[in-house]
Structure formats: structure tokens, C-alpha cells
Model the fold of this input.
Amino acid sequence: MLATMEIVDILQQADGLAETILHSDIGENYLLSLYKVKSDKEAQRKISKFTSLKDLFEDVQRFGKYHPDYKRINMETREAKRDMDMHPTVAEFKMAETELQSTLDEISGLIGHAVSEQVKTPAGNPFFVSSGGCSSGSCGTGGSCGCSA
Done:
């Protein structure tokens, strides 16, 4: 029973941390940019076009360069992605998303390493990867440090 209460307390504190993050400048910037990208008809059109082409490319890619439309669809998909990524609202959203993800990775790392240096944590941002005695920073992944996954 005591362990269950501790887990409930930890989950409540995690919810509080999530609320704090959402109401931080980074969290609010992310939510605002998400709202903007969802409300921007041109951005949604470009996202939809890219998604459709990406799905088509995945089908064509099964046959690789031997598919008669491989080059054309590959080029159209790349152009649509570049067009989507260059749209100001999409670019703003991607920057806000990256900033939030970096913050979440840093928090995860701090929490994980407070428990133990051996705890696996997100390693998406190399500035927050703790080597924990591993020179490559890839502990737990079977990387060049020799750690096992």
C-alpha cells in the first residue's frame, strides 16, 4: 500500500511539472506556434501535400530506382518538404518544437541521472548527454563504449 501511495505522489508531482512546463515561456511559445500552424490554411495545404507525396514515395520506394516514377516522385517529395519547411509558420513551429524537446530531454536527463548515472535518458541533444564514464556518450545503446543495450 505504501509503494502505491508513493507512486501516486510521484505521478502527481510529474503532472505538476508538466503544468509548469506548459505554462513556461517555452511551453507557451510551443502552444502558440502549434495553434498558428494549425490555423494557417497555406501551411496546412503544404503539410497535406508533403504528407501525400511522402506516402506515395514510400510506396514507390519499395521498388527503389527500378520503379518508373521513382526519380520524379523523389524530386517532388523533396521539393514539397522544402516548400513546407520554408513556410514561416511551419519554420516557427519547428523551432518551438525543437526548443521544447531540448528542454524535455534536459529535464529527463537531470531526473534520470539524479536516480543513477546508469539510467538511460534521451540523448537527442548532445549538450545534455552525460557520459557516465563512457567516452562516446552512447551508454546503454551498445555503442563504441562497449556498454550493452
In short: Residues 128-149 have pLDDT under 50 and may be disordered. The chain is about 70% helix and 0% strand.
